[in-house]
Amino acid sequence: MMEDRSLKFIKLSEQRMTRIYQTANLIANLSNTTNYTYSKEEINELFSVYFEQGEKIKDFFSNNTYQPANEKLNFKFSVSNIGGNKKNQKFRKLAEQRLNKILQNLILISRLSNRRNYKYSTEEIDYLFSCYMEKGEEIKRFFEPHLEPLNDNFSYDNFKI
């Protein structure tokens, strides 16, 4: 019985985290500046919510009482969009949809915190959420080269003999 609850936790957390990974990879596709435009503020807000919600859901596992995330998490950009830009509108629409899908899978993961139905160790939870955070960092790196302007000018200003 105890073994079954542990295996059930492993199986379900793997499935749910796999869906998060797949959706996060789709967010990485939005870094393609040929098809999408975005601002540094938009990327910061997107990943701020990603990381904050991950920490919040992890806390469900440290509480001794079962309280799954019941509210429907719904992400909408609060920063203003790049006015009238179709590529930015497309980016925002897809980024919101994809992050909301990740947040819904996080809610499903929070339901695994019920110790009556699932058995897990602190190490398993730490590993699960460290992988979640690492995936977020990996995906965020796709956007970083496009957020800083490229230097077009060469000079000897910093040259020293």
Could you give a quick summary of the protein structure above?
With 161 residues, the chain is mostly helical.
Word description of this protein:
The protein has 161 residues and is mainly alpha-helical. The chain has one domain. The protein contains four helices and no strands. It has helices spanning 2-29, 40-62, 86-110, 122-147. α1 runs antiparallel to α3 and α2 runs antiparallel to α4 (122-147). The longest helix is centred in the first third of the chain and has 28 residues, at 2-29. The protein is elongated. It starts with a helix and ends in a 14-residue tail after the last helix. The mean pLDDT is 88.
- Write down how many β-strands occur, each being a DSSP E stretch of 2 or more residues: 0
Number of domains: 1
Portion in strands: under 5%
Biggest beta sheet summary: none
Weakly predicted, low-confidence segments: none
Our measurement of the CA-to-CA distance between the termini, rounded to an integer number of angstroms, reads 74 Å
What value does the Rg take, in angstroms?
20 Å
What is the share of helical residues? 55-70%
Question: What spatial form do the alpha-carbon principal axes imply?
Answer: elongated
Instruction: Summarize the helix and strand pattern as letters.
Output: HHHH
What kind of assembly state do the chains in view correspond to? Answer: single chain
> DSSP helix count?
4
Structural class: mainly alpha
The whole-number mean of residue pLDDT values reads: 88
Q: What's the SSE blueprint?
A:
Elements: H1 2-29, H2 40-62, H3 86-110, H4 122-147
